[in-house]
Amino acid sequence: MTNKEIEEKKDINPFIQESEPETQPEMVESPQEDICEQAENDIKAEYETLKNQYIRLAADFDNYRKRQTQEREALLKYGAEDTLKKLLPAIDNFERAQKSLIDVDNPQKIKESFDIVQKQFLEVLEKIGLQKIETVGQEFNPEFHEAVMQTPTNEHPDHTVIMELQSGYKLGDRVIRPALVNVAVNE
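Now predict its structure.
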């Protein structure tokens, strides 16, 4: 504004004062502000990196969980497959024996066929890991035996299994079914 313009405005509005042209003070950044801004940028970059790593880790864990669930379901569904494959030859022999016994009049031949198939079936079960629990002559053990009878006798030691009523089996160290036994009790 020129002086003439200022004078004219003063005539119109007496409160206008002469002033120097307005200037904005220049912003001078101090070194401390630069350091703070740099630290803030570093923190933001590190935050983004950690956030991305977390997202990837969460996705990996979710995929792992889904894969484990699928494997568990497949194991439950098809876990017996190997066992059943081992049993198939014994089943085949049962079917062959059944067909061959149609015209057989000799009971000894029937017994021999039955014994062969039973032996094969038990061998397959042993290969799978099934073990028969020993009973007769053994001392009574509640982990493996279930006493359903007690017979007073002096012919056998006390608490000795004298008769097996039903076989017991275990798979590895786990008892599948305890043996039902008759136990001697001294009079």
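The beta strands are 130-132, 145-152, 161-166, 169-171, 174-177, 179-185.
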